Amino acid sequence: MLAAQVLINALVLGCLYACIAIGFSLVWGVLNVINLIHGSFIVLGAYLAWGLYQSLHISPWYALAIAAPLFFAFGYVIQRLILNRVITAPVLVTLTLTFGLDLILNNAMIYYFKADYRKLTLTPPMGSISLFDVVVPVDRLIATASALALTGVLYLILRRLRVGRAIVAVRLDRDAATLMGVDVNSIYAIAFGLGAALAGCAGVLMALIFPISPLTSTAYLGKAFVVCVLGGLGSVSGALAGGILLALIEGIGSTLIGPAHATTLSFVLLIIFLIVRPQGLLGRKGFE
């Protein structure tokens, strides 16, 4: 039964990891920007869910509807006003810029919220489901379903909507997309806004499971990076596969050698993939 519990936990957490990583993968794949502010977006989304619940008693499930447009607008403005000025510069320039933006946002959260850990606790608690000695909290199940829904929405946007096809076209060949009449700068801003929206929504969901603090932004960024490498940059299904694989490795590592070494195992796996299969499990040239 222990193996079944570890597997279920990995599936639940893996879907949440995929939700964390898919926005990071989108920005990296389309804009060629390694967005170091992504982890702070996630933490800010968690604080948004915590603040709405504490002050207005708005459920985290409804907070998703607030976080998505709010973070999209935030990301859109940041890309249009700041990142767009250096978007054609070498990767090191955009990397340094997003690092600086991350420092500003993270220190602002530390100043306002302090570095104390907070926890979003639902009242009354939603309980748990037990089946054959495998126990899963109901709030985690709903969070998992929400994460899968968000991932599915992005998949449909990229496959079905005109703006999604434009994002894919820019991802494949910016110059050809420009010749076909695509406003590349607008697509860049939309893609960055979508990445920020997904990060904010992921933060809302993670607030139900993990303590909230600005200090956790680096951990979320690291997990997004690992999932992108494991699953393959440019693949929605790859992000889901990479998230489940990472969660499974962490779960097995926590059980066998202790939770303190779970992160170490995940980065060992990252190094192995970079050497053996750098394209990841399902990596491909363009988004699905």
Automatic annotation (TrEMBL):
Membrane topology annotation: Multi-pass membrane protein
Keywords: Amino-acid transport, Cell membrane, Membrane, Transmembrane, Transmembrane helix, Transport
Compartments where found: Cell membrane
One term under GO cellular component: plasma membrane
CDD domains per record: TM_PBP1_LivH_like
GO annotation (BP), single: amino acid transport
Segments passing through the bilayer: 6-26, 33-53, 59-78, 90-113, 141-158, 187-212, 224-249, 256-276
Stored InterPro entries: ABC_transp_permease, BCAA_transport_permease
Domain of life: Bacteria
Principal place of residence: membrane
Any single Pfam family the record assigns to this protein: BPD_transp_2
GO molecular function terms attached to this record: transmembrane transporter activity
Recorded family membership: Belongs to the binding-protein-dependent transport system permease family. LivHM subfamily.
Name by which UniProt lists this protein: Branched-chain amino acid ABC transporter permease
